[in-house]
Amino acid sequence: MRLADILSGDAGVRPGQEQSARYFLGYARVSTDMQERAGLSIPAQLREMRQYAECHGIVLVDLYQEAESAFSDDSRRPEFRKMVDRAKRDPGITGILVHDSSRFFRNPHLSPMVKGDLLDHGVRVISVTEPEYDPETTAGLALEKMTEFKNAAYSMDIAMHTRKGMRENLARRDPEIGYCYKNGGAPPWGFAAYRVERGVDRRGMPILKTLWTKDERPAAGQPTWQWARRLLVDQRLQNRVSLDRLRDFLNGNGVPAPRKTYWSTSSIQALVQASVLLQFAGYGVWNVHGHHGRRRPPAEWEIVENAHPAIITLEEAEAILAVNDDLRRVGEERSKGRMATVRTATSPYLLTGGLFQCSRCGANMVGYRNRGRLYYVCGSQRYRRGLGCGPGLDVRKETIEDAVMEEVSELFQSWSDSRRLMQAINKELGAREQKVSEISLEAKRELAKVEQGIENVRNAIKAGLDDIEWANVELKQLRERGEQLSQQLRTEEAKHDRVLIDSRQVSEQLTIFTEVLANGTSEERREMARIFVKHLDVDPDSGAVRMELFSTPPTQHKKRTPGCEKPGVPIGMVAGTGFEPVTFGL
To answer: What's this model's pTM, rounded to 2 decimal places?
Structure first.
C-alpha cells in the first residue's frame, strides 16, 4: 500500500470489490421444549446463522449453544459466559451472531451492560432475523432500546402467565382423587410424588399432573412417613427434643436422609419451618421463596387446605411451632450468661471459619480438644456424632498452623518489590470497603421498611384501630429494630473511610512482619492467613494436605511426614505453592 493511495482514498474497499471477511462467534439458545417445536430449535438457529454468515462475508470461528432462559444472569449460562470472555479476549473477533436478539439476552438491565462491555472491546452483537443497525448512531440506539423493551416485555409476560398458571394449578383438585395438583419440586421428607395422566392436549400429547401421597417406602422397618410423624410429634412435640437430638434419633435408628446417608442439623431444621409444617398438615403451600432463595412474608404465600394426605394435624403443627419458639428462647437465655466470655475470648484456632476444609465431603474442618491436645477434624464428624463422611482424621493444630504460617512468611518475604505488595494490600482494602458498602446498603433498605411499618401502624391507629395494645407492642418492636439498624449503619459508616497505603509504609511494615508472625495475637495471625491462603484442604483417606496461596499457581510437592494422625498410622503429605515442601513435625 502506498501513501498516495491513502491520501486519495483508494485504500478502502470500493463498491463491487470483495469485502474482507469478518470473524464472529455464534450463539444459539433455547429455554423450553415449546420453542423447539415452534421452529426455534438449536439446529434450526444454527442453519439460518450459517446461511446469513455465508451471504454477508462472516466467518463463524466457533459456535456456542445451551438451554437456559435468557432472562437469567450469565452465571447460569456458562457457555454464554465463555463466549463473551473469548470475544473480549480475542482481538480477531469483531462480532457475535445470534438468531434474534432475544437469544442473546432478555433482561433489560443486564443486556445493555454486556453489550456495552463488548462494544468497548470492538465486538458487536448482530441478529440474523432483525435489521442490522449501528449502535453508535441515534437511530441505532433507539432501535436497540425498542428491541430490548420488546424482548423484556415478552419474558415478563410469559413469567406472569406462568405464575398465574402455577397458582391456578395449585388450587385445582384432581377429579378422581380429590387432592390438589403440584407445581413440581421435591416434596418434604415423608411424602412421595407421583404423576397421573389426565387426558390429552390439542396436539394429542398426554396431560401429566403431579400429586403427593404418604411415602410408604420402608426405612429401618417402618414406612418413611411414620418416621416423619414420630420425629415431629413423639420427639419434637411431646419430648421437646432439640434439633441435634432429633438428628441423632434418626441417625441412631438407621433412617437414611433424603439426599445423603446421614442427617445433619440443618436438614432437621428445615423440617420444622412453618411452611413445611403446614405441608405436613396437608396444606398446599406455594410462593414461599423469591429470587435468590429469599423467603417471602407469610402474607404472600399461596395456601390451599386439604391439598394432599396429612401426616400430622394442624393443631400438632401449631404446637410444634410453639415448641420451636420456647426452645429458641431457652437457648438465647442460656447463651446470655456466657456470651461475653465466648465473644471476647479469642479462638486459638487460626484456620476455622471455612479456610480449612475436608476434601472428601467439602465440610469445614473444626477445632476440638482431646486429652489436652488441640486438633482439627471434619465438621461432619464433629457435629453428626461420628456419622459424617467416613472414617475421621485428626490433624494436630500446631502442626498444620506452623506449616501454613511458614509458607505465608516465605511468600511475604519473597515480595521484595514493595510496589507489588502495596498494590495487593490496597486491593484487599478496596474489597473490604465494597463489603462495608453492601452491608450499609442492605441495612438502609431494611431501615426504610421499618420506618414504613411504623408509619403504617400510626395510620391504622388514626383510622380507628381497636387493638391498641397490639399497636403499642408492634411499635416498640419496630423502634427497637430501627435503633439496631441505625447503630449498625453508624458502625459500618465509621469503617467506610478508605485508607490507602504507599510504598514507604509497606517498606516499614516489612521490617516488623516476622515479629507479628512469631508473637502476634491469634486474631492477627488468623487475618494474616486469610489474606494469603486461597484454599486449604485435607484428604482424610491419604492424609494429604493441599494448600494454594493467592499469589502463585499451586504446584504439587509430596513428602511423607507425621503431620496428620490416623489411629496408629501417622502419615501425611504436603502440597505447597512453589516453595520447598514444609515438613509437618510434631
So the answer is: 0.48
